[in-house]
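Quick one, tokens below:
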């Protein structure tokens, strides 16, 4: 590489500058996503050395606790923008076995919901403390510069674009060949 020459990633997904920008964004999105997942697992391991929960399980646990209100599988999927119901149910079974959540006995029978238990509250409170001590302290001087409100709004817009693109892609799927 010559002095002053800028390194440019070569991607099979990009044929022009605009596509390269999108592809580089998507590459960073993957890295942020997996970094966030690893962070959740590492944070959980700080409070539970026998941690059996992966990032998917932890997202279910924290969303069940959100607003201190029971949620059913479909609400969990909707709130997390997931449609993999069997995997959500698998996480719930793990959380039930560990005693972090319980079946909610109050809603309609066909819409089984789950709520956080006292043990789950203790676990999520410990996670909150570890998160404050590690992540919040690490970001303390960065909050203003990061402008998380703007970033959140931008990511919400981008999520909507990907959702719509997914719906469009679904309409292009061909029928299985006989």
């Amino acid at each position: 590489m010559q002095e002053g020459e800028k390194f440019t990633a070569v991607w099979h997904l990009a044929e022009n500058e605009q596509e390269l920008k999108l592809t580089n964004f998507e590459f960073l999105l993957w890295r942020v996503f997996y970094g966030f997942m690893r962070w959740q697992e590492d944070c959980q391991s700080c409070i539970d050395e026998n941690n059996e929960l992966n990032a998917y399980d932890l997202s279910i646990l924290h969303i069940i606790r959100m607003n201190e209100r029971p949620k059913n599988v479909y609400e969990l999927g909707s709130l997390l923008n997931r449609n993999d119901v069997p995997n959500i149910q698998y996480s719930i079974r793990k959380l039930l076995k560990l005693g972090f959540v319980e079946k909610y006995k109050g809603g309609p029978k066909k819409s089984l919901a789950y709520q956080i238990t006292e043990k789950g509250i203790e676990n999520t409170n410990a996670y909150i403390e570890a998160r404050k001590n590690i992540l919040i302290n690490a970001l303390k001087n960065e909050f203003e510069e990061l402008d998380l409100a703007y970033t959140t709004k931008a990511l919400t817009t981008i999520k909507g674009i990907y959702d719509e693109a997914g719906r469009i892609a679904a309409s292009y799927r061909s029928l299985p060949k006989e």
